[in-house]
Design goal:
The complex is a heterodimer of chains A (370) and B (111). Chain A is of the alpha/beta class and 370 residues long. Helix content of chain A is 35%, strand content 24%. Classes of the chains: A alpha/beta (370), B mainly alpha (111).
């Protein structure tokens, strides 16, 4: 989008005098005007210079105005561009079809210049006001995302939990979250979760999930009970269609045991220090928040000092075409090269090794050491 | 009451009374009108009512801008009747359109 000081308008009409008339009038108003005599020329122009407003004739030979607008909507920067259709006086059907296609207005031929100017002005003002609104929303999302990041516990805040994390929300306010909490001397809980969707609501759900975890993670509850109680609270509160996948791991350093509970989430991985062996801690469970009665399976493993557990979101597999097995194979290969790296860099290096994750999903990779 | 060949006043009112702008539109019409009419005539000859509708629509639009109201009316009639595909009737309307176009081509330069 261009500046409101000099908006760019694309005028499309196969009839030369109309095209000339509109172009000249709008140029005199101070607008940048691109004139196109047919649909293909219009698309070419819009691809090179996305307009702020389009004036589109309907009845043109070859590609008509409706078809042109449909294709225009697929171009970068033109998805939401306002379109004013140019129609004949008696063309009620075209007018209705134009509105159905998302036209903002129409101008009747032969043109009354005063009317053209007024309609163009009002729709440019609307378009720019909408853009400002969207930018304001973006600013709020960024603030929310920042607050969300600041609320995440950092390794230095809880050194005895011995964890490292890579946290890269793809959106300003993302749906991925992690939390690490102390559950008593030598006992820690590690949560990684992924909220469905990418919007402001998503990050609110993420915040709520963390609050619920802290409420229900205490020593009186087993990890399965923690997720069950979280599920009950979330189910009563989440709108339909909204849910979380989560993996919650509790490590007891006193007894040398990890218990992993899954809520429809990728299985965490245990790397045994002595043998460099990699084990998937598979457990089956329902997603969180979707059903009133959900089941969460768990898996227990004995662990020794130096063993590591990696918990992650499926963002790690973005960019993989293959199925479950090929994702796992890639993960095992990546981790087997990273067995001896310092814990602090393990999550980062794992994400790097899994390749570009710029494909739109968030990624969390969290590793902790016994 | 018969329409005038050119309603310059009405056209100028739409164009903010801008005589220069009207002159430009007139020049374009004088250059294009014959060609636009020929497209209409060819469509009628090949008896394609959709082509006829589109061609008449184009001539109508161009003529309306400049205020050539009788050509506009004749082209409009042809555009609206094209769907009926009553080719005898359309031939008569085409003859009328040719006559009006010829008159406007003669009179518009003097307006």
């Amino acid at each position: 989008m261009n500046s409101i000081a000099q908006p760019r308008i694309l005028v499309v009409d196969d009839e030369r005098s109309s095209l000339q008339l509109l172009s000249m009038v709008l140029r005199h108003e101070g607008h940048l005007v691109d004139a196109a005599g047919d649909g293909p020329a219009a698309l070419e122009s819009a691809a090179a210079n996305p307009p702020d407003l389009v004036l589109m004739d309907i009845l043109m030979p070859g590609m008509n105005g409706f078809e042109t607008v449909e294709r225009l909507r697929n171009l970068d920067g033109c998805r939401a561009v306002p379109v004013i259709f140019l129609t004949g006086m008696e063309d009620l059907e075209s007018k209705l079809r134009g509105f159905a296609m998302g036209a903002v207005d129409y101008v009747v031929k032969p043109f009354h210049l005063e009317e053209v100017r007024a309609r163009v002005r009002i729709h440019l003002q609307l378009a720019f006001a909408q853009r400002e609104l969207a930018e304001e929303q973006g600013r709020r999302l960024r603030l929310l995302g920042q607050a969300q990041r600041e609320m995440m516990v950092r390794p230095a805040d809880l050194p005895e939990a011995r964890f490292a994390v890579h946290y890269a929300p793809a959106q300003e306010a993302g749906g991925d979250l992690y939390d690490v909490l102390s559950l008593g001397p030598g006992i820690h809980g590690y949560l990684v979760a992924d909220v469905s969707g990418h919007d402001v609501g998503t990050s609110l759900v993420a915040t709520a999930a963390k609050a619920l975890l802290r409420q229900y993670a205490g020593p009186v509850f087993s990890p399965e009970e923690t997720l069950r109680l979280m599920n009950r609270a979330l189910h009563g509160w989440l709108p339909p269609g909204r849910f979380l996948t989560a993996c919650y791991v509790r490590l007891n350093r006193n007894t040398g045991n990890v218990r992993a509970v899954s809520a429809g989430h990728p299985a965490p991985i245990l790397i045994e220090s002595a043998t460099a062996r990699i084990r998937h801690l598979d457990a089956e469970g329902d997603v969180l928040g979707a059903f009133p009665q959900a089941r969460f399976g768990s898996v227990d493993r004995p662990v020794r000092k130096g063993d590591r557990v990696v918990v992650f979101t499926d963002g790690l597999f973005e960019g993989f075409d293959g199925g479950f097995d090929s994702c796992r194979a890639a993960l095992e290969a990546a981790l087997s090269d990273l067995v001896r790296v310092p814990l602090e860099v393990l999550p980062e290096r794992l994400v790097e090794a899994m390749g570009p994750t710029s494909c739109g999903d968030d990624v969390v990779a969290l590793a902790f050491e016994v | 009451m018969e329409l005038p060949v050119v309603d310059k006043q009405e056209a100028l009112a739409r164009l903010d009374g801008d005589q220069e702008l009207w002159d430009e539109i007139r020049a374009i019409w004088l250059a294009d009108a014959r060609g636009l009419f020929e497209v209409v005539a060819q469509a009628a000859e090949s008896r394609s009512s959709e082509s006829l509708r589109r061609a008449a629509h184009a001539l109508k639009g161009a003529s309306a801008n400049v205020g050539a109201v009788r050509v506009t009316a004749a082209a409009r009639e042809l555009e609206l009747r094209s769907v009926e595909a009553d080719w005898d009737r359309l031939a008569a309307l085409l003859a009328k359109l040719r006559e009006e176009t010829d008159i406007a081509l003669r009179e518009l330069p003097l307006a």
